[in-house]
Design a protein that fits this description.
Layout (H helix, E strand, L loop, with lengths): L14 E4 L8 H15 L8 E5 L5 E2 L2 E2 L1 H11 L8 E3 L8 E7 L5 E6 L3 E6 L4 H4 L4 H4 L6 H15 L4 H10 L4 H16 L7 E7 L5 H9 L8 E3 L13 E11 L4 E10 H7 L8 H9 L8 H4 E9 L1 H8 L5 H4 L5 H9 L1
Parallel strand pairs: 2-5, 9-10
Antiparallel strand pairs: 1-8, 2-6, 3-4, 6-7, 7-8, 9-11, 11-12, 12-13
Length: 349
């Protein structure tokens, strides 16, 4: 994956960056870290091999928002959104500020964790042999937690592996890259290819049922939100549905024309056979294996037609659309896809 062997494993850098907890943006402290990190990575400002991943603009420090740190990072490193090497991931507002920096040639990665009072600089391995170890999320230094390690490693490995930018944007929304994000990415790309929007008055409405991680990728790529009434999330046990068991159900698409006040619908899925041809995606597998498994799909993300399937297509009237998105009844029941016998069996267990 990398153009040169990775020269660093998991080590601890004996560097503590002391910043005053004033609630203001600690410009000198952050700049000091960024320069130290670039020195450690043996890279200079504007290097095309330099990548930065941060949760700045999502977290708050001392009750202050952190968008000002984004400018400091960009100005000091030369990384930018336009260059595709300044990346973000969403986190809870009260989490610490994280800034990870990596060398694309070597795979070397260093991380700053800053809580508004002091910073801790450490190293994070991007090597496959380290990630695959069962204790990977408990051995990393620099004060980075296991969950933070998962977020950083899954996204930074994707950047190092030249994953498409819109996949990285999906990861920004979701916070990391996991099997569900891959499923959602393939579903969204399949929808755009099979059911393209051809007029300004047309729009997608997606019923995410069964719901899960995939929905954040579908939402991001297709521009859907609950607030715009274009995304609906509904729990549904797949075992209760009558469908082709060789396919993995993703949800129900409505391609709607506001001009004609009518549309078409499709129950969309992904082929299990095609997915397993690449790798077995299992949402229950350990996180370190999820990172390595999802990466196997990066070379296949432009071939959504290989995976995308339509279980059922149907016309959608204005009234039927209201019924499908209503919360009081399963949309699959309206489509005649619910097995009453299976529901009874599940309820008895």
């Amino acid at each position: 994956m990398y153009r040169q062997p990775i020269r660093i494993a998991i080590i601890f850098l004996s560097a503590f960056l002391l910043f005053p907890g004033t609630g203001k943006c600690d410009v000198q402290g952050i700049e000091h870290f960024l320069h130290d990190a670039m020195k450690t990575l043996e890279l200079e400002k504007n290097s095309p091999d330099l990548g930065v991943l941060t949760n700045a603009n999502y977290v708050r420090l001392n009750e202050k928002t952190t968008e000002q740190y984004v400018d400091i990072i960009a100005q000091t490193t030369g990384c930018s959104i336009g260059k595709g090497n300044l990346l973000f991931f969403d986190e809870r507002p009260h989490n610490s500020l994280l800034v990870a920096m990596a060398n694309k040639k070597t795979g070397q990665c260093v991380v700053l964790r800053y809580d508004g009072k002091f910073g801790k600089l450490g190293a994070l391995s991007m090597q496959e042999k380290d990630i695959e170890k069962s204790d990977f999320f408990f051995r990393n230094s620099g004060g980075v937690t296991g969950e933070e390690t998962y977020h950083i490693t899954s996204i930074m490995r994707a950047w190092l592996g030249d994953a498409p930018y819109d996949l990285l944007k999906s990861a920004e929304t979701h916070g990391h890259i996991c099997p569900g994000i891959i499923l959602g990415y393939l579903t969204a790309k399949g929808i755009e290819q099979k059911f393209p929007l051809q007029h300004p008055d047309e729009e997608y409405i997606f019923i995410a049922s069964p719901n899960g991680c995939k929905d954040d990728a579908i939402m991001t790529l297709l521009g859907l939100t609950a607030g715009k009434k274009s995304l609906y999330s509904m729990a549904q046990d797949p075992k209760s549905l009558i469908h082709n068991t060789d396919n993995y159900l993703m949800g129900i698409l409505i391609k709607w024309s506001n001009k004609e006040n009518t549309g078409m619908g499709a129950v969309v899925a992904l082929s299990l056979e095609a997915l397993f041809m690449v790798a077995k995606l299992d949402i229950t597998m350990p996180r370190n294996l999820k990172i390595m498994t999802t990466q196997k799909f990066f070379d296949w993300l432009n071939d959504s037609s290989l995976f995308f399937r339509v279980e059922k297509a149907f016309p959608v009237s204005r009234e039927f659309k209201k019924q499908l998105i209503a919360a009081d009844q399963s949309p699959y029941d309206l489509l005649g896809m619910v097995s009453k016998q299976t529901i009874q069996e599940l309820s008895n267990n």
